[in-house]
From TrEMBL:
SUPFAM superfamilies: MCP/YpsA-like. Residues 1-49 are annotated as: Disordered. It comes from Rufibacter quisquiliarum. GO terms for cellular component: cytosol. InterPro entries: LOG, LOG_fam, LOG_family_nucleotidases. It holds the Pfam family Lysine_decarbox. Residues 9-29 have a biased composition (Polar residues). PANTHER family: CYTOKININ RIBOSIDE 5'-MONOPHOSPHATE PHOSPHORIBOHYDROLASE, LYSINE DECARBOXYLASE-LIKE PROTEIN. GO terms for molecular function: AMP nucleosidase activity. It catalyses: AMP + H2O = D-ribose 5-phosphate + adenine. This is Cytokinin riboside 5'-monophosphate phosphoribohydrolase.
Length: 287
């Protein structure tokens, strides 16, 4: 038989005898662990709430309902920020003269052969009369600006604020360093003011910039400027897939689209392709 009795501590105890064991099972009061004040309740809620990463916050924010005033205020301010970046970019880039954009990884170290090759390509481009545009950061970008700077040529850096990796290098002309918050504005500057593109080995950002240029040329949104990729062992597999799958298997591009890109293995061949392209039009840099 079970008896319920109230102890001096106002707790309910279930006194139950199991085969004469004499064990007393204590049943806590229902309100024992509840907050005693509003402040305590907030503290408990804060402790129990999951810690959200920046990615989690961005995802949750995308599903948050906002009223029209919130949308209008936030988006209007963003439009002005975008406009400001375009204006600064147009003002600084409009008079830089003929330039070649060099794409490549921010993670490439100074002792890497591709770093040295990017530096050599940039120096040769300057000696042939071109300026150099890079993403303004370390790695291949630094090598490009370093090569241009060493020859006294125009060295442009389109830097972007990132939580890691990216910081502007010291070889950019002070009046030709532009800092961006928006990738799409930065890519406009890469393409709008370049008369050729050199792609060194890189990651997703390099691929993004490379295929932006290829797409705009393929769709005839810009002129058919030369695109040169350096490193056959690096780029060969990707373009074999493009040829075998994208073109032959799925017919998602045309055969002539493959002619938009040249793959080489050294600095001399890279610069020669740029020069040969413009010699067809009897054009030369006019620095």
């Amino acid at each position: 038989m079970t008896k319920l009795r109230k102890t001096s501590k106002t707790q309910l105890q279930d006194e139950s005898s199991n085969a004469g064991s004499g064990t007393i099972i204590t049943q806590p009061e229902a309100n024992e662990h509840k907050a005693q004040s509003l402040a305590e309740a907030k503290q408990i809620a804060k402790q129990e709430a999951p810690v959200l990463s920046d990615d989690d916050k961005r995802i949750r924010e995308a599903f948050t309902d906002k009223d029209w005033n919130e949308i209008k205020i936030a988006d209007s301010w963003q439009i002005f920020k975008v406009m400001a970046e375009f204006v600064e970019g147009f003002e600084k880039m409009a008079k830089i003269g003929p330039c070649v954009s060099i794409f490549g990884s921010a993670r490439t170290k100074e002792d890497n052969p591709y770093y040295k090759m990017a530096e050599e390509i940039a120096a040769k481009l300057v000696r042939h009369g071109y300026g150099v545009i890079t993403g303004g950061g370390p790695g291949i970008m630094e090598a490009g600006n370093k090569g241009a700077h060493s020859e006294g040529g125009r060295s442009v850096g389109l830097n972007i604020h990132l939580p890691f990796e990216q910081f502007n290098n010291i070889y950019i002309d002070p009046d030709k360093l532009i800092n961006f918050d928006y990738f799409f504005v930065r890519k406009v500057m890469f393409v709008k003011y370049a008369q050729g593109f050199i792609g060194m080995p890189g990651g997703f950002g390099t691929l993004d910039e490379l295929f932006e240029a290829i797409t705009l040329i393929q769709t005839k949104k810009i002129g058919q400027f030369p695109i040169v990729l350096v490193g056959k062992s690096y780029w060969g597999g990707l373009f074999e897939w493009i040829k075998d799958v994208m073109l032959t298997q799925e017919s998602n591009i045309s055969p002539e689209d493959l002619d938009l890109v040249h793959i080489v293995d050294n600095a001399t061949d890279a610069v020669k392709i740029i020069d040969d392209f413009y010699s067809k039009y009897m054009l030369s840099p006019n620095f």
